[in-house]
Amino acid sequence: MRFNLDKAMGIHETALYVRARRSAVLTSNLANSDTPDYKARDIDFKQVLKNAEGMKSGGGMQMTNSKHMQVGGYNAATAELLYRQPFQASLDGNTVDAQIEKAKFAENSMQYQSSLNFLTGKFKALTLAIKGQ
Amino acid sequence: MSLLGAFDVSGSALSAQSIRLNATSSNLANAETVSSNRDTTYRARHPVFSAVMDTFNPDKATTGVRVDGIVESQSELRMRYEPEHPLSNEEGYIFLPNVNAIEEMANMISASRSYQYNVEAMNTTKQMLMATLQLGK
């Protein structure tokens, strides 16, 4: 069996990337909490990961012939940003609720840390397998 | 790398909020600066924020803040009848700035809270990056 580092890392690599991107999006929301007409944005993590996983497990184009060209899979980097539905309209057209954004930001950074921990676990397992002790 | 972009975004927010805080302090400091005519009287100043899309970044995740400019409040100046005042005009009136102290205090609290949580966001981002650097060790 051929070893593939991408496969060894599983979905965690994509998850980490999406978490990092979501963190930047939420930071932008916090930064623009006083900007008139700014609309708060977010990433639907579940959906993006589902799409990415679908591509990995062959949900996309499949190569049935050796002459087929590799088609670029789902790109988590360009997954579309959605707009948040505000609970309360504000007069200046801004839809950032700082409390919600802060909560989401804290949640996302914890999830980022857990993705990192999963990856560290994978690395540890590989190192163990290489050293054999 | 999105996380490094988050630093720039938080930085732009800190800069914008500190400009807002500066404007507030100058408004409060000049709340009682009298003058003898309308044109030379201090007017309350407020910054105008706008969002800057990072269009060069392919992942389009970051949106910073920019201060578009400072606008002077166009609301009516306060006039007070004080003929003994050295700066009073021919009719005996002095002009006071249109600074609304309550509004300014609310602005100040809002600006300082925003500043605080942007610093917090920056710190969290830093911790996330530091943890990433330790990956695989």
Could you list some keywords that capture this structure?
heterodimer, A: mainly alpha, two-stranded antiparallel sheet, 4 helices, 3% strand, elongated, B: 137 residues, alpha+beta, two-stranded antiparallel ribbon, 2 helices, 4 strands
The arrangement of helices and strands of chain A along the chain is HHEHEH
Beta-strand residue fraction of chain A: under 5%
What is the radius of gyration of chain B computed over CA atoms, rounded to a whole number of angstroms?
A: 22 Å
Instruction: Count every beta strand of chain B, where a strand is a DSSP E run of 2 or more residues.
Output: 4
Indicate the overall shape of chain B. Answer: elongated
Main sheet properties of chain A? 2 strands, antiparallel
Structural class of chain A: mainly alpha
Helix content of chain A: 40-55%
Could you walk me through the main structural features you see in this protein, from its secondary elements to its overall organization?
The complex is a heterodimer of chains A (133) and B (137). By secondary structure, chain A is mainly alpha-helical. Chain A is elongated. Helix content of chain A is 53%, strand content 3%. A two-stranded antiparallel sheet of chain A has the order 1-2. Chain B starts with a helix and ends with a helix. Chain B is elongated, with a radius of gyration of 22 Å. In chain B, the strands form two sheets. A two-stranded antiparallel ribbon of chain B has the order 1-2. Chain B has a two-stranded antiparallel sheet with strand order 3-4. The mean pLDDT of chain B is 91. Chain B has 137 residues and is of the alpha+beta class. In chain B, helix 1 (2-29) runs antiparallel to helix 2 (101-133). The chains are: A mainly alpha (133), B alpha+beta (137). Chains A and B meet through helix 2 and helix 4 of A and helix 1, strand 1, strand 2 and helix 2 of B.
